[in-house]
Amino acid sequence: MGGTGPVLALVGATGAVGSVMVDIINGRPEVPWGEIRLIASARSAGKRITVRGQELTVQALAPEVFDGVDVAMFDVPDEVSAQWAPIAAARGAVAVDNSGAFRMDPDVPLVVPEVNADAVADRPRGIIANPNCTTLSMMAALGALHREFGLRELVVASYQAASGAGQSGIDRLYAELAAVAGKDLGVRGGDVREALAAAGLGQADSPFPAPLALNVVPWAGSVKDDGWSSEELKVRNESRKILGIPDLKVSATCVRVPVVTTHSLSVHAVFDREVTVAQAHAVFAAQPSVVLVDDPAQGRFPTPADVVGGDPTYVGRVRQALDFPNTLDFFVCGDNLRKGAALNTYEIAEQVVAAR
Amino acid sequence: MGGTGPVLALVGATGAVGSVMVDIINGRPEVPWGEIRLIASARSAGKRITVRGQELTVQALAPEVFDGVDVAMFDVPDEVSAQWAPIAAARGAVAVDNSGAFRMDPDVPLVVPEVNADAVADRPRGIIANPNCTTLSMMAALGALHREFGLRELVVASYQAASGAGQSGIDRLYAELAAVAGKDLGVRGGDVREALAAAGLGQADSPFPAPLALNVVPWAGSVKDDGWSSEELKVRNESRKILGIPDLKVSATCVRVPVVTTHSLSVHAVFDREVTVAQAHAVFAAQPSVVLVDDPAQGRFPTPADVVGGDPTYVGRVRQALDFPNTLDFFVCGDNLRKGAALNTYEIAEQVVAAR
Fold this sequence. Notes:
The structure is a homodimer.
Chain A: E1 7-11, H1 16-27, E2 35-40, E3 48-51, E4 54-57, E5 59-60, E6 71-74, H2 78-90, E7 94-97, H3 113-116, E8 127-129, H4 133-149, E9 151-159, H5 167-180, H6 192-198, H7 230-243, E10 249-253, E11 263-271, H8 277-285, E12 290-292, H9 304-307, E13 313-320, E14 327-334, H10 338-354
Parallel strand pairs in A: 1-2, 1-6, 2-5, 6-7, 7-8, 9-10, 12-13
Antiparallel strand pairs in A: 3-4, 9-11, 11-14, 13-14
Helix pairs in contact in A: 1-10, 4-7, 4-10
């Protein structure tokens, strides 16, 4: 970084996604940036983080930090983005935002570079949105299939990791695991709530609405109309917008599982045209950001433990539905902190400067 | 038990399901049996187990143990049932079998008492089959909906507990949890395979094809044609047989999760007739073996940790699909060792003697 290239700002540099973002920037063979600024809340200001061999001091969020910035990536809560992304844009930066604040705004493109890279150019508010991590975990695979076969319907069930709820989700899962492990809990798995209470882990202190260790929790996000969760509606509405299929039929059920990082989804996808497993395998093999892991007889299918830390979307268990025409069932795993958040945001930022 | 009632035999009395079966028999307010015999492999013979206040000695499996037996419940591997259930039947017992050996035999009824109790009477081979635990976990709920609205299509994703793989599955999950808990595994969750190997937990020694702690595994059962697992085909074929809908359209994806006991399923069900959430709630409320837990705003939905050890099927997250007509999305949890195995088997045995 020599001062001649564009200036990148990372807002939320000290959070769970922000720290993965720093890893991604450090791991790139080269970057286009002349300068990188790390920004966080006043509480984290002054921290020193090494970026591409240079020790940078985290600056407190303030309007002036955006002066001279070309691209500002935001990994902060919705309400912080809602306030600050427009300030960054007003100061001349393109804001790439990973919150839910702007995703469904018709004047804000929602971008997955493999699917709709061109959309970055049409940004009347100076803001580009990064999709929700659950939606993102399947988009590279679904976008590739949609181009070939025409997607019509989606039924999705998720297996979402604790880190989707940020650092507090990760900390809580570890604390719960420590409270239940090493105990003789019998064939039933004991009373998990009792074990957590005995360890001082009150449910009210958890970012999750039920115990996560030795459990699955069929809820993520906030309460929306008619029993739907915000997370489930995001999967539906964001998939429609990214893929450009306004009438895509979607039913999603979002479930949290005791995995630290990497979201998985079971996908039932109906297409306009017939699709075989061999055709789907060929489509995935031709998509650089998708890795096919699909040979159950050899124990080969994607699992979070095997794909975490990787950039691609991993796809396996591809089957032609036995009773539904033009339909595939498959399973995807994607690191929700990388492609699901930091990586896709960074890829959008790169796309913005490449398109200048 | 006074010697005047019918004789019940429990084959596989010392296994994970067998021990739950003993709990169920001990927990009944009254039982119709004049005598109960506990049977297991020669290795477990001689063990003493208390049943309804009486200490019984486990007998080794042999043809003679079935003499005088009215109902013999089998909770043993497929190949043991395949050999021994016909022997029990030849000696005059009605064999109620919880293995996969006979479920799809057209001369063997496959029974869930709430759905098709009358089927117990038509048993030309003297054998009645108990369904697979994953299928069973949703049958009471689906059977009730089918009677009212006419089931046509099912898309199912499972969250299956370790105990579905028996005691070795339970032991493995506990051992894996102990190996990963209390470590600083970071935002990625560390390298689970490495942690297990360091603890001496080789993958080849596991009943699961991948790590289960801090992971989900999209595989259960054996490899069948075209990428399907035996477990997924059981969900399809057994649902059709139990519900009496030979052309029911089914796609299932079966996934193991790090829960000790209680299977969960995300269900997308399409009906012949329109169905609202209020109508579905009314149907569930009228079904004694279904408990409705459905108020997300109050944090009320079923989770394995809250329902394990219970007899009913717990249903929540009931939503009318936004984009599919006549369609409900919902989430069910059922204790796979109780209703999913021991309880339903025992209910069939009771049905057999009640129908005499």
